[in-house]
UniProtKB/TrEMBL annotation:
<dbReference type="GO" id="GO:0022857">
    <property type="term" value="F:transmembrane transporter activity"/>
</dbReference>
<dbReference type="InterPro" id="IPR000515">
    <property type="entry name" value="MetI-like"/>
</dbReference>
<feature type="domain" description="ABC transmembrane type-1">
    <location>
        <begin position="17"/>
        <end position="206"/>
    </location>
</feature>
<feature type="transmembrane region" description="Helical">
    <location>
        <begin position="62"/>
        <end position="82"/>
    </location>
</feature>
<dbReference type="GO" id="GO:0043190">
    <property type="term" value="C:ATP-binding cassette (ABC) transporter complex"/>
</dbReference>
<keyword id="KW-0812">Transmembrane</keyword>
<keyword id="KW-1133">Transmembrane helix</keyword>
<dbReference type="InterPro" id="IPR043429">
    <property type="entry name" value="ArtM/GltK/GlnP/TcyL/YhdX-like"/>
</dbReference>
<dbReference type="Pfam" id="PF00528">
    <property type="entry name" value="BPD_transp_1"/>
</dbReference>
<feature type="transmembrane region" description="Helical">
    <location>
        <begin position="20"/>
        <end position="41"/>
    </location>
</feature>
<keyword id="KW-0472">Membrane</keyword>
<feature type="transmembrane region" description="Helical">
    <location>
        <begin position="185"/>
        <end position="203"/>
    </location>
</feature>
<dbReference type="InterPro" id="IPR035906">
    <property type="entry name" value="MetI-like_sf"/>
</dbReference>
<dbReference type="InterPro" id="IPR010065">
    <property type="entry name" value="AA_ABC_transptr_permease_3TM"/>
</dbReference>
<keyword id="KW-0813">Transport</keyword>
<keyword id="KW-1003">Cell membrane</keyword>
<comment type="similarity">
    <text>Belongs to the binding-protein-dependent transport system permease family.</text>
</comment>
Length: 217
C-alpha cells in the first residue's frame, strides 16, 4: 500500500476533473448541434423524416448510457475495424445520448409556443424557416434555457460511466488511487465533493432561471 497525502489525492482528482469538464463540454456542444438538427426533423411535416428522428430519440433515450459506451468503444471496432480511443468513444456515446434529450427538450419548448404565433407570422407572409428564426425560436429559447442547463448536470454525472472503457475522468482516477491507497472513504468523498462543486452551481442556476421565467410568465 502506497501512502498518499490528502493534498496529493486532491491534486490528482482535480487534474482528472479537467478531463471530466472537457468531455462534458464536447458532448454538450456537439450534442447540441446534432440535437438541433434532430429537433428540426422531429417537428417536420414530412412523415418519414419525423419517423427517423423519433427512432433516433427513442433508441438513445431508451437504452442505458453504459450500453452505448460499450457499443461505441467495442462495437465500432468490430463492425468497422476502427479502434477508437477512450476519449473519442466516450465523446461519440455521450454526444448521441445528449443530442436525443436536447432534441426532445427543444421540441417541447417549440410546441409550447401558442399555435397563434405560427398563424400570425404566416399571415405576415413569413416562410417556415423565417417563422422559426424570427418568431418561434426566440420565444422557445427562453423556455428551454432552464431545462437545458439542468440537463448539463446530467451530462457531467454521465461522464463517470466513461471510466468503464478506460477514460481517466474523476471516477476512474478515484478508483485507481483507491486501489493503491485503500483509503476508500477519503478518496471517494473527495471525488464526490468535486462532482458536487461542478454540478451544484449549474443546478442552482437552472432552478433560479426556472423561477425567474415562471415569475415573468
Amino acid at each position: 500500500m502506497e501512502e498518499f497525502t490528502v493534498s496529493q489525492i486532491l491534486i490528482n482528482l482535480v487534474v482528472a476533473a479537467k478531463w471530466t469538464i472537457i468531455l462534458s463540454a464536447i458532448a454538450f456542444i456537439v450534442g447540441g448541434i446534432v440535437g438541433f438538427g434532430i429537433m428540426l426533423m422531429r417537428i417536420s411535416s414530412i412523415r418519414w423524416v419525423k419517423w427517423l428522428s423519433l427512432v433516433y430519440i427513442e433508441f438513445f433515450q431508451g437504452t442505458p448510457l453504459l450500453l452505448q459506451l460499450f457499443l461505441a468503444f467495442f462495437g465500432i471496432s468490430v463492425v468497422f475495424g476502427i479502434n477508437l480511443s477512450p476519449l473519442v468513444a466516450a465523446t461519440v456515446a455521450l454526444t448521441t445520448f445528449t443530442s436525443s434529450f436536447l432534441a426532445d427538450i427543444w421540441r417541447g419548448s417549440i410546441e409550447a409556443i401558442p399555435r397563434g404565433q405560427w398563424e400570425a407570422s404566416a399571415a405576415l407572409g413569413f416562410g417556415y424557416f423565417k417563422q422559426l428564426r424570427l418568431v418561434i425560436l426566440p420565444q422557445a429559447v427562453k423556455l428551454s434555457i432552464a431545462p437545458t442547463v439542468g440537463f448539463l448536470v446530467q451530462v457531467i454525472k454521465g461522464t463517470s460511466l466513461a471510466s468503464v472503457i478506460g477514460f481517466a475522468e474523476i471516477s476512474r482516477v478515484a478508483t485507481q488511487i483507491n486501489n493503491v491507497t485503500l483509503k476508500s472513504l477519503l478518496v471517494f468523498s473527495l471525488a464526490g465533493l468535486l462532482y458536487f462543486a461542478l454540478c451544484y452551481p449549474l443546478s442552482a442556476w437552472s432552478q433560479r432561471l426556472e423561477q425567474k421565467l415562471t415569475y415573468k410568465a
